[in-house]
Write a structure and sequence with these properties.
Blueprint: E1 8-9, E2 15-22, H1 30-41, E3 48-51, H2 54-63, H3 70-81, H4 94-111, E4 118-119, E5 138-139, H5 141-150, H6 153-156, E6 162-169, E7 175-179, H7 187-193, E8 203-205, E9 208-212, H8 221-226, E10 232-239, H9 251-290, H10 299-307, E11 316-322, H11 339-358, H12 360-363, E12 372-376, E13 381-382
Parallel strand pairs: 2-3, 2-10, 3-6, 10-11, 11-12
Antiparallel strand pairs: 1-2, 4-5, 6-7, 6-9, 8-9, 12-13
Helix pairs in contact: 1-3, 1-11, 2-3, 9-10
């Protein structure tokens, strides 16, 4: 595996920071692990990881492991989660596979996932109103134990690799980022980012309670673009739900399509808005520099200067890597933790990176004149 470095040459020869942005999506997060394994094998080890929900967990496993052990720790985590159901469909074909997946998801609902979450031993109704036990179906003590075992939080807080995870403050409803550049990160911050209600309980940190960041936004791209480093930046944004899809044929497919659209539309909106905002800030910076000295104190020019304060002349490249459905997937795909499915998601992540890197548009990429460029090459399209 390639050794990490603080920067790598970009296509125009300047230093290029690598960022890995990981969306939420439960069991589909194995796709992100496959993406990381292939990126690392090609020398793209991240300088900064940002994640939400399962993306926060994967990000912590990567940032909290020595580079030479990152893939090993990711495998250990996903092997543990998939240890309950390791079989295969009895018969070949998509109908049998769909039934197998639904059975696996039913096992998850009934018994939880090893190393992640488990049903409470007594019904929720038995607990007094307002207690943590009364606010969720499952308990996540297994996740804390897994994080404490597999993640070196001292390494995360050493500053070697930046880690940012998003959560929602329940009291205010505001989105919050826990960032190793600004505070010390512990297991509770990762658990807060992945505390999806009503399945998982809220997580208390410094007197405030938090839920899964995906309630507000399922991708941390906006936060990353608002806090870019000064050098050229290559962002790999790994999405677990695809905006594109066919017409549903059953109620189960309706539920799946609804989930895909809701989560992917948030991602697409954040990408478009963030891209436009960054381009506007950079344009304002260039415009202010062209104005004569007698206009520099004009109130409107000062407003433009404030707008461009966070802008820099560095090039930003965003690479979309999007998990796309199989015909036998259903609305349960994000809580279906069979080893067969997780291995497929993992390999899909690796294959999408391979396809991207061998695409002629990627091979010929240059620094964009507008400093912002977006690739989605796994569908043979580019924005």
């Amino acid at each position: 595996m390639a050794k990490p470095s603080n920067s790598r040459p970009s296509k125009n020869g300047a230093a290029e920071q690598n960022l890995l942005v990981l969306q939420g999506g439960g069991a589909l997060g194995a796709y992100q692990a496959g993406v990381y394994e292939e990126l690392a094998g090609n020398g793209h080890t991240p300088d900064w990881l940002a994640g939400i929900s399962i993306g926060a967990i994967n990000a912590a496993l990567i940032a909290g492991s020595p580079p030479e052990r990152r893939c090993e720790q990711l495998h250990a985590f996903w092997d543990r989660l998939s240890s309950r159901l390791q079989g295969k469909p009895t018969f070949p074909g998509e109908p049998a596979r769909a039934m197998f997946n639904e059975t696996s998801a039913a096992f998850t609902t009934a018994f939880g996932v090893p190393g992640f979450f488990q049903p409470r031993p007594v019904p929720i109704m038995a607990f007094p109103f307002g207690t943590a036990e009364a606010l969720s179906i499952y308990e996540t003590a297994p996740l804390r134990a897994t994080l404490e075992e597999l993640v070196d939080f001292d390494l995360i807080n050493s500053g070697r690799t930046r880690l940012s995870v998003g959560a929602v403050n329940i009291r205010s409803g505001n989105f919050v980022y826990f960032d190793s550049k600004r505070q010390r990160i512990g297991p509770e911050h990762i658990m807060a980012s992945s505390a999806l209600p009503p399945g998982f309980p809220p997580v208390e940190i410094d007197g405030e309670h938090y839920w899964d960041g995906g309630l507000v936004s399922n991708t941390p791209l906006h936060f990353v673009l608002d806090n870019l480093p000064g050098s050229d930046t290559l962002i790999f944004q790994v999405d677990l739900f695809s905006a594109q899809g066919g017409m549903p044929r059953t109620l189960s497919e309706v539920a799946e399509r609804d989930k895909d659209i809701r989560y992917s539309s948030r991602t697409r909106l954040n990408t478009d808005v963030s891209r436009q905002s960054l381009a506007l800030r950079q344009a304002a910076q260039r415009l202010v520099a062209k104005l004569p000295a007698n206009l520099q104190d004009d109130p409107d020019v000062r407003t433009l200067r404030d707008l461009s304060a966070k802008a820099n002349k560095a090039a930003v490249t965003i690479v979309h890597l999007i998990h796309r459905r199989k015909n036998y997937h259903s609305q349960s795909k994000d809580f279906e933790f069979s080893r067969l499915s997780l291995a497929e998601h993992w390999e899909s992540g690796r294959n999408d990176v391979r396809r991207t890197f061998r695409h002629k548009a990627w091979q010929k990429r240059t620094r964009s004149k507008t400093h912002v460029r977006v690739f989605d090459l796994t569908r043979d399209a580019e924005d």
